[in-house]
């Protein structure tokens, strides 16, 4: 796909998201309107590069979160809201998972994790769906840390995907 077509598709995706159109519906519309054969993941990746307030598009988002708490959760402010640190509503985990706005080359998703034990690491999900962790700083996470990380990662990715 050439850069001009990609730009037109990104503009179209942004407009449809503002209307509240789901990513799966956007996929169908893009395939029809632009005569492209794009997968849901292709659409999701393009959408992840857009400056979109993902929380405002989530019908299940809590609206009673104080503004100062929402600002605190936005991390550096560079990432879309859905890619900010995972909010831990259960209170049983201090594990924080962040998703990079643009995945590393060859990866579907990538980001960082701060384990409840205080250790940090980079994580990725490759194009085959395999999860990997590297660049560990601190003590090796125990089984409990790993389980909490996987649960938080699942929550964050599901929220990003609108599930």
Write the layout of secondary structure elements.
Blueprint: H1 3-19, H2 23-33, H3 40-48, H4 54-57, H5 67-73, E1 96-99, E2 107-114, E3 120-126, E4 131-137, H6 143-160
Antiparallel strand pairs: 1-2, 2-3, 3-4
Structure in words:
By secondary structure, the chain is α+β, with helices and mostly antiparallel strands. Helix content is 40%, strand content 16%. It has six helices and four strands, in the order αααααββββα. It has a four-stranded antiparallel sheet with strand order 1-2-3-4, with helices on one face. Strand 2 and strand 3 form a beta hairpin. The chain is elongated, with a radius of gyration of 17 Å. The relative contact order is 0.11. About 20% of the residues have low confidence.
Describe, in short, the structure shown.
By secondary structure, the protein is an alpha+beta fold. It has helices at 3-19, 23-33, 40-48, 54-57, 67-73, 143-160; strands at residues 96-99, 107-114, 120-126, 131-137. It has six helices and four strands.
Keywords for this entry:
alpha+beta; 163 residues; four-stranded antiparallel β-sheet; elongated; 6 helices
Q: Biggest sheet, in brief?
A: 4 strands, antiparallel
CA radius of gyration: 17 Å
Per DSSP, the total helix count is: 6
- Strand share of the residues? 15-25%
Class based on secondary structure composition and strand pairing: alpha+beta
Mean pLDDT over the full residue set: 75
Q: Order of strands in the sheet with the most strands?
A: 1-2-3-4
Q: Which range best describes the helical content: under 10%, 10-25%, 25-40%, 40-55%, 55-70% or over 70%?
A: 40-55%
- State the separation between the terminal residues, measured CA to CA: 28 Å
Shape, please? elongated
Q: N-to-C SSE series?
A: HHHHHEEEEH
Assembly state: single chain
